[in-house]
Design goal:
304 residues; Muramoyl-pentapeptide Carboxypeptidase, domain 1; 15% strand
């Protein structure tokens, strides 16, 4: 049986939180009670343990008080992405590399440097970050010692955090990390955050209802801004040019194919564009984002 006090001490050391986040001063029964109250209020499992889900939720709540979420695109921003040391064009004018002013860089040790040999990238994996901004997301990734090659901010700015040839720790297993690149699209997910987005000048996000993920309907949740979707499609196209990731997804409409497609996605044999939930039933991102429809739109627009 898990000792909650020991667990929370280890969690705090690993993730960087402290008891005062929950309004108490020590690692004791009072903290456990406060955590459970927070969890119940947010419809989480009230176990008194600050695991990744509880941490991400309270971290995002606290980030609302930090006024640095509006991205500041560098004057040196490029319209290229980097793969295996080479620059590849992208049809998007808001791209900031890790090496540029105001860039976001993956923390050393959170990814595997692959220099000198070109890796075979089979899949592009879409994630939502459940954070308020890409800056907030990068801080969470740093604290958890994980990584992803790309971030898309609220205004559609694409941040590349490392050479896309490097292996980021985003897909859940070594096999999948080795053959994928990924993007974290900024989206705090929960409806109550829409007031924050409006107050900060981003505007209200669309609301998704009825999203089907691995046979389960998600609660109503926030969707993506149009600028984010356009940035994502531009990134898919650029990764197709640079890495030959096919502009295709698994057969059928999004959310309706987990039984047939999970094996080919989970073992890394599929080639194309997928969501994180196609790789594992433990994930729900990016429910409600119809890859197939957006690829069809790209065909209609002449981008494929």
């Amino acid at each position: 049986m898990t000792d909650p006090i020991s667990y929370n001490i280890d969690s705090a050391n690993k993730l960087g939180w402290s008891p005062d986040w929950f309004g108490v001063v020590g690692f004791d029964i009072e903290l456990i009670t406060a955590i459970k109250a927070y969890q119940r209020f947010h419809d989480l499992t009230a176990d008194g343990l600050v695991g990744p889900t509880t941490y991400r939720r309270i971290y995002t709540d606290r980030e609302k008080n930090i006024d640095d979420h509006k991205p500041v695109t560098s004057e040196l921003a490029t319209n290229h992405i980097v793969y295996n040391g080479n620059f590849f064009p992208i049809e998007w004018d808001k791209v900031v590399l890790w090496s540029e002013e105001n860039g976001l860089k993956a923390k050393p040790g959170s990814y595997r440097d692959v220099t000198g040999s070109r890796r075979d990238v089979k899949m592009f994996v879409n994630h939502w970050d459940v954070c308020l901004s890409s800056k907030s997301c990068q801080r969470v990734l740093d604290q958890r010692k994980i990584s992803v090659q790309f971030l898309i901010d609220n205004d559609g700015t694409i941040y590349q955090t490392m050479d896309a040839n490097h292996i980021a720790w985003h897909a859940g297993s070594r096999t999948l990390n080795n053959c994928t690149v990924g993007v974290e699209i900024s989206n705090a997910y929960y409806l109550r955050h829409n007031e924050w987005y409006e107050r900060k000048g981003f505007g209200r996000r669309p609301i998704c209802t009825g999203s089907l993920v691995n046979g389960h309907r998600l609660e109503a949740h926030l969707g993506f801004y149009p600028e984010q979707i356009e940035a994502l499609k531009a990134l898919w196209r650029a990764c197709n040019d640079a890495m030959q990731v096919p502009l295709q997804t698994i057969h059928g409409r999004d959310g309706l194919m987990s039984t047939d497609t999970e094996p080919v996605c989970a073992n890394g044999t599929f080639r194309g564009i997928v969501h994180h939930y196609h790789l594992t039933k433990r994930k729900t991102d990016c429910g409600g984002l119809d890859i197939l429809q957006h690829l069809e739109d790209m065909i209609d627009d002449g981008r494929i």
